[in-house]
């Protein structure tokens, strides 16, 4: 990170002094030039894939240690003197898991090629008893798959030259795993927030309920409801088989006085009192007046499977245990003091009463502030905790089994036992990531489809998958609520990038500047809150150590009168009530001032909820936040001088955070702010300014030029089709051997770019080509969005692509000692090599570059006839073999591109053959522009039959497929594609028409144009360079009389997609339907 030097520091301070002194509120606000440069500075430290990496780093550096610390001891039931303790755990760097390797270092590229897992050893430091001594050892307990570009990856911190030597692409974002040679990504999972009260209503049944899903550090999760039923309020939990009247539940929690219960729930509001009176009377009718009676009532209804095995305990003990450890488990109970938990239940009850009186008090489940996103780190932490506990259980059983033996020749050493247990963790991680099934019985978690194979159809398809959010909502349910576009998604979720069909609105994508938080320790935050004036029942000495160490005691003595006072606000930290404040505005302002001074994590949020009279502080992980510029006294704190320092490289984005110029806002805190879109929109009440408006779109939607001029569904269609575009996938694409790879022969960066294209590197790994498009009607073959292509352009490489397909075989070694082998091409009775063996060389493999036709053999492999026969004598020649060759089955001929021979971790010989097919566009192939308008090739026309311009130049004759910046007038006369103008009116893609003009202007002026959303090159300025050459007069070469037609001949970006038509199968005539009618 760049740290400002002393002279730079003085320059920074001079800028601040010059900008903040002597400025009046009525003075005009200067626009900050190039403030969008904060965006690339942000993407260097956060955003896009960085949240996956941050989450994984937090797991390997913090979570994994906390889990081991919570499960750090293994004891024996046989020998009480034996114990084993974990004192530390560390994850190493990736290496080869092979005994024969001298150099253990491994790169991701080697793992992809050899079909092995990119994983690192998990080392624990243990202390255990051996006889009468205590021994300390380091033990390898398994291997953890490592996320690429994380802190444990060998690629982290490498220069482009070093990455090139490792055969890795510098533009590859990382954030995925390589498991058994396959790239796997853990999708972001959307969940409801934990430890928060959510109030819902069912208008059909007339039910109002408040729910809270408790989640503790021990992994325990449970859901508690406070709901209405027949005009009364009940507590509902799955640990009891019957709803508990709320008054009885509160009595069991220690609130025995009816008056105190009424004050804690209804306060002094008459409407709430009358609504709650029936619930209060129910306890009296059931004869429950004391705490013991309430505990007996609840204990008799606790489910049997919740009880501890052994002698049956009294009902009141069952109730105490259930209330302490299961119901609202996240609220702590100290020394059987349930007061804090009683206040939380009373708060839930009050929220129900408020919703019964005013339906506006009902929460929206789909509000983004009520959601949390689970990343790879959280999911791997759950998986590791489950596997580690099972590992300890198995270890304990193995130790007990050995200690039970009456006679042992030597002292028992637990280290030797642990050597045989390591495969459990390794196989558990590999199985979960490979299959995508998170099946954790310990946490009652059954989730499928957590991981997906990383799409390598194009560079943008891989990047788009890394920002995708998967919802747990049933896709088959026809409910509009979760699918609708939420106002709270502004700036954090892309409004355009969502699939069509049943997953519409359920699968979402992150916006460009969105960051997902990781957990921040809440203890220092609670201390700080008390230092800033949060109090309990009275204004006592708030610096008392007891109050700082156990702040929950402050609120435990509060009564309903104090909690629901007219000027009292309840302070919550991560959903748990810690105290009260009577000056919420001052408290929040001081808290934010300290956050901007970096006295705490920049991701801690605080906001006031005036409806509930509460101040909420959040430091938990999974919240969605984004950076904005701070505005004070009607002026943005970031100025042009600050941007100039950023350009010089003197400061980084972290310096803007450290100086309090920029801050992160989560969705809840955004409700407490007033954000301006542009400087001209700033008013005295404005608190923040957007960095750039186009950042509300995601990485995929940001590639569309002029999207704000298009009909909304067109942008959504383009987000789906843009990921299918054929182009370049990575710098190392020719060194990869993927299952299926599509590469465009001549990819080009677009003539009309956007800032997003440059930010994500799409101009360096483009997909598609720039085509000269004539928008006109041409015969009847262009109806229904069909395109007319120039045959001369196709001959010169327009739209040509390569399809590379991987073929794999193993030379196996069998248990009886036999093995597969490769053989030279056999001879027939005439001593000639059969035609199908023509390309086989002496080593039994096809030569690189050889043409392979359907039916040809490219690996001449032979296998033993009986691999299970144990009579093998060790002589390979004596074993009968059968031919098991690999035959080329595609109906289209190809070429052998690569042949790779290696070995796997199991010491099996691995052979991969990459076969290449080169394809050119033909009838029926799919093309698409960058505005969601797709069509197939309807006709391929010779260049002499294509339209020509008034200078008599044949359209295809001077096509410059590789030329982007040129002033040659011949380029504009070459027509590659003809598009029917009827495709514009109904689709309303005005952005496409502007792109046509901008593309032509770019060719004539020699400059690339910009079509960034809510900005970019203006239409008037775009048309100026064209001048009189806005239109061309074309003649139709296929008619005897030249039909002169004035139209626009422009440069248009076309994305070449889906060239892979069916290679085999039945054929039927269907082109007759497209013939023009008489």
Automatic annotation (TrEMBL):
<dbReference type="GO" id="GO:0032549">
    <property type="term" value="F:ribonucleoside binding"/>
</dbReference>
<dbReference type="GO" id="GO:0003899">
    <property type="term" value="F:DNA-directed RNA polymerase activity"/>
</dbReference>
<keyword id="KW-0863">Zinc-finger</keyword>
<comment type="function">
    <text>DNA-dependent RNA polymerase catalyzes the transcription of DNA into RNA using the four ribonucleoside triphosphates as substrates.</text>
</comment>
<comment type="similarity">
    <text>Belongs to the RNA polymerase beta chain family.</text>
</comment>
<feature type="domain" description="RNA polymerase Rpb2">
    <location>
        <begin position="571"/>
        <end position="632"/>
    </location>
</feature>
<keyword id="KW-0548">Nucleotidyltransferase</keyword>
<dbReference type="GO" id="GO:0003677">
    <property type="term" value="F:DNA binding"/>
</dbReference>
<dbReference type="InterPro" id="IPR007645">
    <property type="entry name" value="RNA_pol_Rpb2_3"/>
</dbReference>
<feature type="domain" description="RNA polymerase Rpb2">
    <location>
        <begin position="453"/>
        <end position="516"/>
    </location>
</feature>
<dbReference type="InterPro" id="IPR007647">
    <property type="entry name" value="RNA_pol_Rpb2_5"/>
</dbReference>
<feature type="domain" description="DNA-directed RNA polymerase subunit 2 hybrid-binding">
    <location>
        <begin position="976"/>
        <end position="1018"/>
    </location>
</feature>
<dbReference type="Pfam" id="PF04563">
    <property type="entry name" value="RNA_pol_Rpb2_1"/>
</dbReference>
<dbReference type="InterPro" id="IPR007646">
    <property type="entry name" value="RNA_pol_Rpb2_4"/>
</dbReference>
<dbReference type="Pfam" id="PF04567">
    <property type="entry name" value="RNA_pol_Rpb2_5"/>
</dbReference>
<feature type="domain" description="RNA polymerase Rpb2">
    <location>
        <begin position="194"/>
        <end position="374"/>
    </location>
</feature>
<keyword id="KW-0479">Metal-binding</keyword>
<dbReference type="InterPro" id="IPR037034">
    <property type="entry name" value="RNA_pol_Rpb2_2_sf"/>
</dbReference>
<dbReference type="InterPro" id="IPR007642">
    <property type="entry name" value="RNA_pol_Rpb2_2"/>
</dbReference>
<dbReference type="Pfam" id="PF04561">
    <property type="entry name" value="RNA_pol_Rpb2_2"/>
</dbReference>
<dbReference type="InterPro" id="IPR015712">
    <property type="entry name" value="DNA-dir_RNA_pol_su2"/>
</dbReference>
<dbReference type="InterPro" id="IPR037033">
    <property type="entry name" value="DNA-dir_RNAP_su2_hyb_sf"/>
</dbReference>
<dbReference type="Pfam" id="PF04565">
    <property type="entry name" value="RNA_pol_Rpb2_3"/>
</dbReference>
<dbReference type="InterPro" id="IPR007120">
    <property type="entry name" value="DNA-dir_RNAP_su2_dom"/>
</dbReference>
<keyword id="KW-0862">Zinc</keyword>
<dbReference type="GO" id="GO:0000428">
    <property type="term" value="C:DNA-directed RNA polymerase complex"/>
</dbReference>
<dbReference type="Pfam" id="PF04566">
    <property type="entry name" value="RNA_pol_Rpb2_4"/>
</dbReference>
<dbReference type="InterPro" id="IPR007121">
    <property type="entry name" value="RNA_pol_bsu_CS"/>
</dbReference>
<keyword id="KW-0808">Transferase</keyword>
<feature type="domain" description="RNA polymerase beta subunit protrusion">
    <location>
        <begin position="47"/>
        <end position="411"/>
    </location>
</feature>
<dbReference type="GO" id="GO:0006351">
    <property type="term" value="P:DNA-templated transcription"/>
</dbReference>
<feature type="domain" description="RNA polymerase Rpb2">
    <location>
        <begin position="653"/>
        <end position="685"/>
    </location>
</feature>
<dbReference type="Pfam" id="PF00562">
    <property type="entry name" value="RNA_pol_Rpb2_6"/>
</dbReference>
<keyword id="KW-0240">DNA-directed RNA polymerase</keyword>
<feature type="domain" description="DNA-directed RNA polymerase subunit 2 hybrid-binding">
    <location>
        <begin position="700"/>
        <end position="955"/>
    </location>
</feature>
<dbReference type="InterPro" id="IPR007644">
    <property type="entry name" value="RNA_pol_bsu_protrusion"/>
</dbReference>
<protein>
    <recommendedName>
        <fullName>DNA-directed RNA polymerase subunit beta</fullName>
        <ecNumber>2.7.7.6</ecNumber>
    </recommendedName>
</protein>
<keyword id="KW-0804">Transcription</keyword>
<dbReference type="GO" id="GO:0008270">
    <property type="term" value="F:zinc ion binding"/>
</dbReference>
């Amino acid at each position: 990170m760049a740290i400002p030097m002393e002279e730079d520091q003085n320059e920074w301070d001079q800028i601040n002094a010059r900008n903040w002194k002597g400025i009046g509120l009525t003075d005009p606000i200067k626009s900050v030039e190039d403030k969008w440069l904060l965006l690339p500075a942000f993407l260097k430290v956060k955003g896009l894939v960085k949240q996956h990496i941050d989450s994984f780093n937090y797991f390997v550096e913090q979570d994994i240690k906390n889990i081991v610390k919570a499960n750090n001891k293994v004891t024996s039931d046989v020998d009480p003197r034996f114990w084993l303790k974990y004192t530390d755990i560390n994850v190493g760097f990736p290496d080869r898991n092979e005994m024969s390797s001298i150099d253990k270092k491994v790169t991701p590229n080697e793992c992809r090629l050899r079909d092995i897992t990119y994983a690192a050893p998990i080392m624990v430091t243990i202390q255990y008893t051996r006889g009468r001594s205590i021994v300390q050892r380091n033990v390898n307990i398994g291997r953890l798959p490592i996320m690429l570009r994380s802190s444990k990856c060998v690629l982290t911190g490498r220069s482009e030259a070093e990455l090139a030597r490792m055969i890795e692409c510098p533009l590859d974002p990382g954030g995925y795993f390589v498991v058994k040679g396959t790239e796997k990504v853990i999708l972001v999972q959307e969940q409801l927030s934990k430890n928060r009260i959510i109030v819902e209503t069912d208008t059909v049944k007339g039910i109002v309920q408040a729910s809270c899903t408790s989640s503790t550090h021990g992994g325990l999760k449970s859901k508690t409801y406070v709901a209405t039923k027949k005009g009364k309020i009940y507590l509902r939990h799955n640990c009891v088989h019957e709803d508990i009247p709320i008054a009885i539940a509160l009595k069991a929690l220690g609130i025995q006085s009816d008056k105190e219960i009424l004050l804690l729930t209804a306060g002094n509001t008459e409407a709430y009192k009358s609504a709650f009176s029936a619930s209060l009377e129910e306890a009296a009718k059931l004869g429950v007046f004391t705490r013991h009676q309430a505990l007996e009532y609840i204990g008799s209804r606790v489910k049997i499977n919740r009880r501890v095995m052994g002698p049956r305990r009294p009902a009141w003990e069952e109730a105490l245990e259930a209330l302490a450890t299961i119901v609202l488990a996240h609220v702590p109970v100290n020394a059987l003091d349930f007061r804090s938990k009683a206040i939380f239940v009373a708060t839930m009850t009050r929220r129900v009463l408020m919703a019964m009186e005013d339906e506006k008090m009902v929460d929206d489940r789909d509000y983004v502030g009520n959601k949390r996103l689970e990343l790879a780190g959280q999911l791997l932490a759950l998986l590791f905790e489950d596997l580690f506990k099972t590992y300890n259980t198995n270890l304990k059983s193995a130790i007990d089994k050995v200690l039970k033996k009456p006679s042992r020749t030597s002292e028992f050493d637990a280290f030797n036992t642990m050597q045989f247990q390591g495969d459990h963790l390794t196989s558990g991680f590999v199985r979960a990531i490979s299959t995508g099934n998170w099946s954790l019985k310990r946490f009652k978690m059954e989730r499928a489809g957590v991981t997906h194979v990383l799409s390598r159809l194009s560079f943008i398809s891989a990047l788009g998958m890394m920002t995708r959010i998967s919802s747990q909502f049933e896709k088959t349910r026809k409910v509009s609520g979760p699918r609708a576009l939420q106002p709270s998604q502004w700036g954090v979720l892309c409004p355009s990038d969502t699939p069509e069909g049943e997953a519409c609105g359920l699968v979402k994508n992150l916006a460009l500047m969105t960051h997902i938080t990781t957990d921040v320790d809440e203890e220092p935050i609670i201390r700080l809150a008390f230092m800033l004036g949060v109090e309990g029942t009275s204004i006592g000495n708030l610096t008392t150590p007891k109050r700082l160490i156990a702040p929950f005691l402050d609120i435990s003595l509060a009564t309903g009168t104090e909690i629901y006072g007219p000027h009292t606000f309840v302070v919550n930290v991560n959903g748990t009530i810690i105290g009260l404040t009577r000056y919420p505005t001052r408290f929040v302002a001081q808290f934010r001032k300290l956050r901007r001074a970096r006295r705490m994590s920049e991701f801690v949020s605080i906001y006031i909820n005036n409806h509930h009279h509460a101040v909420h502080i959040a430091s938990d992980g999974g919240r969605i936040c984004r950076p904005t510029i701070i505005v004070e006294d009607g002026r943005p704190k970031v100025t042009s001088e600050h941007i100039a320092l950023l350009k010089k490289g003197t400061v980084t984005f972290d310096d803007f955070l450290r100086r309090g110029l920029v801050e992160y806002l989560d969705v809840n805190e955004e409700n407490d702010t007033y954000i301006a879109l542009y400087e001209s929109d700033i008013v005295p009440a404005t608190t923040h300014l957007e960095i750039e408006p186009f950042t509300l779109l995601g990485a995929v939607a940001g590639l569309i030029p002029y999207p704000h001029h298009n009909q909304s569904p067109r942008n959504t269609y383009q987000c789906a089709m843009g990921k299918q575009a054929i182009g370049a996938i990575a710098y190392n694409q020719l060194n990869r051997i993927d299952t299926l790879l599509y590469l465009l022969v001549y990819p080009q960066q677009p003539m009309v770019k956007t800032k997003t294209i440059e930010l994500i590197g799409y101009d360096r790994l483009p997909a598609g080509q720039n085509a000269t498009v004539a928008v006109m009607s041409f015969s009847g073959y262009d109806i229904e969005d069909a395109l007319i292509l120039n045959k001369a352009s196709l001959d010169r490489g327009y739209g040509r692509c390569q399809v590379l397909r991987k073929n794999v075989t193993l030379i196996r070694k069998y248990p009886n000692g036999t093995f597969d082998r490769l053989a030279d091409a056999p001879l027939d009775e005439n001593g000639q090599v059969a035609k199908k063996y023509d390309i086989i060389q002496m080593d039994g493999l096809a030569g690189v570059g050889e043409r392979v036709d359907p039916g040809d053999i490219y690996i001449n492999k032979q296998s033993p006839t009986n691999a299970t026969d144990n009579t093998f004598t060790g002589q390979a020649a004596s074993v009968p073999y059968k031919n098991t060759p690999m035959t080329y089955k595609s109906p289209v001929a190809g070429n052998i591109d690569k042949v790779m021979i290696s070995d796997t971790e199991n010491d099996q010989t691995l052979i991969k053959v990459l076969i290449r097919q080169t394809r050119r566009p033909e009838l029926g192939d799919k093309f698409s522009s960058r505005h969601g308008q797709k069509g197939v090739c309807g006709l391929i026309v010779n260049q002499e039959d294509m339209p020509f311009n008034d200078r008599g130049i044949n359209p295809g004759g001077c096509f410059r497929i590789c030329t982007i910046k040129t002033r040659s007038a011949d380029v504009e006369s070459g027509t590659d594609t003809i598009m029917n103008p009827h495709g514009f009116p109904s689709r309303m893609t005005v952005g496409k028409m502007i792109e046509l003009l901008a593309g032509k202007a770019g060719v004539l002026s020699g400059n690339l144009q910009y079509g960034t959303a809510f900005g970019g090159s203006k239409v008037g300025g775009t048309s100026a360079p064209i001048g009189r050459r806005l239109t061309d007069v074309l003649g139709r070469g296929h008619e005897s009389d030249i039909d002169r037609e004035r139209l626009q001949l422009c440069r248009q970006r076309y994305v070449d997609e889906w060239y892979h038509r069916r290679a085999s199968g039945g054929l039927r005539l269907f082109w007759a339907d497209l013939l023009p009618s008489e």
